Fold this sequence. Notes:
The structure holds two protein chains of two kinds. Chain A is 5% helix and 48% strand.
Amino acid sequence: QDRSISGKVTDRQTSEGLPGVTVLLKGTTNGVSTNSDGSFNLNNVPAAGGTLVFSSVGYVSVERPIGTDNKLDVGLATDSKQLSEVVVTALGIERDTRSLGYATQQIKADQISQKSEPNVLSALQGKVAGVNIVTSSGLPGASSNINIRGITSLGGNNQPLFVVDGIPISNDLDRTSSTLFGAQQSNRAADIDPENIESINILKGPAAAALYGSRASSGAVIITTKSGRNANKKLEVTVTSGFSLQRVYGLMDLQNDYGQGTGGINQLTNGDPNTGGTNSWGPRFGTTPTLANGLLYRAADGSIQEQDYRAYPNNIKDFYRQGQILQNGVNIAGGNADQNLSLSVNNTSQKGVTENSKLNRTSIQLGGNTTLLNKLRAGGSVNFIQTNQLGPQQGNGGSPFGRLNVVPRSYNLQGLPYIDPNTGRNIPFAGGENPLWSLLRNSSTSNLTRFINIANLSYEVTPWLNVAYRAGLDTYTDRRKQIYDISSTRAAAGQVIDQTLFRSEINGDLLVTLKKDNVFAEGLNANLLLGQNINQRRRQEVFAQGDNLTLPNFYNLANATTFSNGTSEVNSTRRLLGYYGQLSLSYNNYLFLELTGRADQSSTLPKENNTFFYPSATASFVFTDAFKISNDFFSYGKIRGNISQVGRDADPYLLNTTYGVATQGNNVASVSFPFIINNANYAGFDIGNRLGSQALTPEFTNSYEVGTNLGFFNNKLTFDLTYFKTVSESQILDVSTAPSSGFLTRTTNVGRVDNSGYEALVNITPVSANDFRWDVSVNFTRIRNKVLEISEGVTQSQIAGATFTGTSPSFVVNQPYGVIRGQKKPRVTDRNSPYYDQYIINPATGLFAPELTNQLISNPNPDWQAGINNTVSYKGLTASFLVDAVYGGDVISFTAGTFKGNGSLEETGKNREAPRVIPGVIANADGTYRPNDIQVDAQSYWGSFGLQSDLNVYDATVYRLREVTLGYTLPKGLLERTPFGQATISLSGRNLFYYAPNAPFDPEVNTQGAGNIRGLELQGSPNARNYGINLRFTL
Amino acid sequence: FSNGNEINRISSLLVQHVAGTANQASGQDVYNIRGGLDNQWQFEQYAGVLENTNTLITVANTATSPAYSGIAKLLKAYNFAMVTDLWGDIPYSEALQGLAKLQPRFDRQEDIYKGSADVQSLDALVKEGLAEIDQQSTLVPSAVDDPVYRGDLAKWKRMGNTLRLKLANTISRKEPALAKAIIDEVIRGNNFIASNTDDFQVPFGGTVGNRNPIYDFNGVNVTGSVAGQRELDLTLSQRLLDSMRTKNDPRLPIYFNTVPASTAGSTTTPLGVFYGYQNGNNIAAPTAKANRSKYNVYFTGNAGEAPIRLLTNFQRLFIMAESALILGTSTGGSTVQGLYQDAIRASMSKAGISNEAIETYFANNPSVVNLSPATDDATKQKNLNKIITQKWIAWVGNGYEAYNDYRRTGYPRLALVLNAQGDDPTKIPKRFVYPASESSGNAANAPNPVPGTIEPVWWDVD
Lengths: 1035, 462
């Protein structure tokens, strides 16, 4: 006699009913799915015995013996480490991970939501194997650089392709100011609010992203936003709110024993500290004031006065204020897989860690899907984003940070006036800007309005043939204003630059899917996808620059009197037409083979070379299923491999040598046309410094990847291991030419860069009792990058971008990408000398001999990096903490160099009066050396370290407590009488602790922002530590 | 622009017109000049002026407008002369051809000046340019596009002939016969810069982006003026101050500003109080710019509008005086002494000195303005010393010319700076070092090892 069993499946954490859970009588095909409220009713169950299996994507499967019961309720626990789950792959195609022949890693909403971090890229830090993410600073909206599996293109963009709901979007910086100074522009993926993201899937290798074509050769980040399709018919309202505080950290320790002055003497005019220079080599605090040491001075009326001379230990620290981030969002979603609708409104309002800095971002997304006719489905979304950013300029010299670092230890930064009340001008400190004045008067704003719109239409012609079209538009206008007020160092007469940047990308994909099961043989299923892609990217940038301002503190172009400098316009359009196909075969759901091919035609290449084809092949084999060796110890085993090729086109307008508005000079003196003399206007254009090429061909990256996924102890311990190698050849690159050819660079196909590496992701669930669960997720990445070839006769070249003369981020043959060439203190090079490798000292001064230029001084690439994430949950309580480590790599710190030279660094205050001898040797006339015995004073000693020298290169190894979250989900019972369906409260902290064994500061900074130049700290803002409280509830 | 920018800064330090008191200038002052002119080679010369004059020649040829290509050739010759004078052997005959010649040959300086089977000499290039200016031209320059001579082609020809004098003068110790022939030919032609109003000088404007590079860098101590980017880097050299103040040279307060009498370390003269800085000194200069003698309005303009003076009437007169004295070239109807005195007068009146003041100077300094009539070699050298020393004073603001004269003749006698460093702390540098971009980008041709700063160029005979 059969019986029927009914019951309800709930989420163990929220006690909500779970729809769509498969309930299967073990060993049979008898099963049902749960209803929208989680209830089920299974018929035809034998009267006694048997076991029910409950399974659902995202949850740990549960088996329950049923004995003779007729009713059974089950709670399922969420599973963060599914081995077999559905992920979104290239072109938005959802796939079961077991069939994939390449590595991907999925990040769920709860890993990035409510983490007190408004930039989604920063929120991913330390969580993904094979991915390197570095934030540039703690300023609001500061960019984050992301590289997947190393750098493959010498000259091109190495950021992965960002795809939102199936259409590519821009993650550009749209940099309009020099990389040496200027504002911290945001990377545009930061426009996507983390609270609006349902999941992120990272496609790591070219194989994974082959269908996206050339733009995904550095991998792809596939973002799926929240929609109503997982809602549960009823309309659900989710409200999130977070409040965080921000503090900078990683400031260097400074001495507080000596103040302003030089050579132990404080030299001021009329006791005014603004006249006294930037050094802290003055007398020790507490020294008896005399006229000789400058602590007494003769005032204008002839009387002798004593100076106010004491330490202001916090004068630099107090430059920064407490920032705060307020994040609020509402998501309204309803419907089911066929008909759904969602509306998300999110706002992030951030007050920055410095005065006059903030970020305000609002996004509104409305989306929905519907089945119009039986076989016709339509969907789409409109996403409006407004991002407003205000921040200071950065860089060496006349920026608030460059000026802050030269404030002497006895300078009362917070107490002294810095704005001339009569003129509104800067009250100059040591001949330059007061940093507080620069903060207020030299700022940069960006007001960005963006739309990301998507429309989908699909028609199921027959059950085996589906035709779909997906169109997307990502367009934005960024209005920027950069100001230097009158009396600023960089533009003494004042300057206002208004910039309007317009970008628009249209993308269309036609997808035809054919599928057939049991072709040729039983169990062999085939799926063929054919597609066509059109893509057009347009940009227009209009710059209006006004110089020679009339009134201070009035930043309107009408306030300027000269408009001839920098006023310009840039336009570009590029188009790409692609055809692609993908054949997927699976055999009995354990052996998978996939072949793809794509042909692109690009408008940026010469006509005869502009069409190119590239293929890929991937395979995956779940041997535990094939050989039926699954047991409690060894539960799951898969091996996979792929080989692929991806082509990449050029940037627009590289084919010709171009002319531009003539300019000459550098940062200390320059002229630009039109040239105005006595009101006569002389226009002038000159030939560019880059030679174009009509012979460019696409560049290709070949990649090989093997990997395995293994599960043990019923998948409580899993491994995901990958080895990869990529070879990128015939790169489109501007290589240096001999200046005597009349040009400095030429665009050509040259060079080869190899990357190889290991990635590992290990998930462990040491404890999983009924209510208690502990998950550990470990990721590890080791990438070796090497530039093998540049072009004939060229062994080194500078990475594109403005850099300090003498400190050049470069690629050098047989070195990793991005090494920095700069000045090195000379050492004994004779290996036979007993003094081999010791510093050579100038016998006249006792200081280092003159630097050697153009030496390799720094390598910004880490040896390895790793992250360990622990999550412990007990009933509704969840605690997680993420520790990550970056081992190796270097950073050059101009801040450290400045602090040494001006005697502010803590070390420079130790033993200051004692003479010192630089360990090194002096050359004898006969070519031998003798040890250096020349005593020098502390100021000369530290001054000789220089700013741009190898002595300011630090090991960037850093271990960090990246993220801590403590969350509590209120039990359902408690909420029964309230309108809330679910409520969670959590505390989160970011960057709570770091340990950098070999650097006196947090080395995870990069003033250059996102891009190919890394490992330079040219005096910018330090990073920020955030801690906050977050609330989420549903109605 | 290039002449007035970094080239002027470093060469003016080397000839001790000014002293370096901060930043890079301090290092360059003590002969750490490696890398100091890399950007001039790369950006301002080869990929700048030189490639653009080349482009102009090409465009002028297609537009059958030899007036433009003629001027372009004069400019090209002037700039190539500057490059070879500073660096020695340089890419010349094969340079500036882009993809057609990515690694141009280095030509010997001797061939660049004298010409050879496959190298056109600079003099021949100038002559070719002069000939083209005379040809029928579809388009001609005018006040709208020629800020220097406002389309006056006659003045361009004077400039070209004076340039020939300068080029010949530069090689006159190495190749006296050739120099004499060229100089005599130019004097016979009698179509050189003959008055201060014909001087070849590049005008500048007074607003951002149009300013004279000396002003942009150094600023000027004029109330209301905009601070220079590096206004504390350069200060009057004590060496020049001493030379000028002992003779009560009225140009001193025109060249450099005076400072308040209370300034520590300043020197009081009848012309006012000046702050001079010993080249290479390592004591700190006064922090306030008002307490330093910096380039005055004559070189900077009140707002950066002063011209950069490249080829001048006084230069022509000094060259004729020197050549007549040493080579025996024509004095053009004057005497060596007459030419020499005219040169001083031209320099002074160019600086705005009144005729009375000039005469006072002449009256008070007979030993300076009069040459000895004796013709023995020792006296000739003494006379040459006087001529070049006066030329050195006249060339303040154009260190490149003074540096050429110093290397060529050894005058004025300059002492080593204090605390000298550089390649050899016992020698004043004699050339600049090729930038790494050239020596690595043109490895097939660039001299290896790269000559250091103390190796003389070809025309520098001692």
